[in-house]
Amino acid sequence: MPDTVEKVAERLARLEKTVAEGFCDTNARIAALDNKIDVSVESLRGDIQTAIEVMTGFIEEMRRTTSSMRKEHAADRKILKLSLLDHEGRLQTLERRRRLRPPLPGEDT
User: Fold this and answer.
1) Which residues contact 83 (CB under 8 A, 6 or more apart)?
2) To the nearest 10°, the Cα dihedral for 83, 89, 90, 95?
3) What is the pLDDT of residue 104?
4) What is residue 106's DSSP assignment?
5) Quick check: 24 and 30 in contact, CB under 8 A?
6) Distance CA 96, CA 109 (A)
7) Which of 72, 90, 91 is nearest to 80 (CA)?
8) How confident is the model at residue 75 (pLDDT cuts 50, 70, 90)?
9) How would residue 1 be classed by pLDDT, with cut points 50, 70 and 90?
10) How far apart are CA 6 and CA 91, in angstroms?
11) What's the Cα-to-Cα distance from 90 to each of 42, 93, 95, 102, rounded to whole Å?
12) Which of 26, 29, 33, 53 to pair with 69, CA 20 to 30 A apart?
């Protein structure tokens, strides 16, 4: 019986050692995974920051382009309006002249 107790004690000691080593291995693996995750997260942060900077630049360029297009459109409208007003004035002048001159032979009034 003392042999049996000693064998059980030895087996328990080996089991404790195996469990302790397993915990150490698990902790090392967890630490390695944590490190790997940290590296991946930092890499992603850099990629996201780069994407944000690119999008910000794109948005600013689009705002400048839109602003320029609005100004150009406003200028085109002014030119068109002036052109139409000028054309209106010429038509009114032609109509006044036509009313003031005597009708030509064969022309209906």
Assistant:
1) none
2) 150
3) 76
4) T
5) no
6) 14
7) 72
8) very high
9) low
10) 123
11) 72, 5, 9, 20
12) 53
The tens digit of pLDDT for each residue in 8-41 reads 778 878 877 777 777 777 777 788 888 888 889 9
Residue 71 reports pLDDT greater than 70: yes
pTM greater than 0.90 (yes/no): no
Q: In this predicted structure, what is the pLDDT of residue 109?
A: 55
In one-letter notation, the amino acid at residue 7 is K
22-43 core/surface letters (b: 16 or more CB in 10 A; e: else)? eeeeeeeeeeeeeeeeeeeeee
Residue type, 65: T
Between CA 20 and CA 34 the distance in angstroms is 21
The set of long-range contacts for 63-67, using a CB threshold of 8 Å and a minimum separation of 24, is none
Amino acid at 58: F
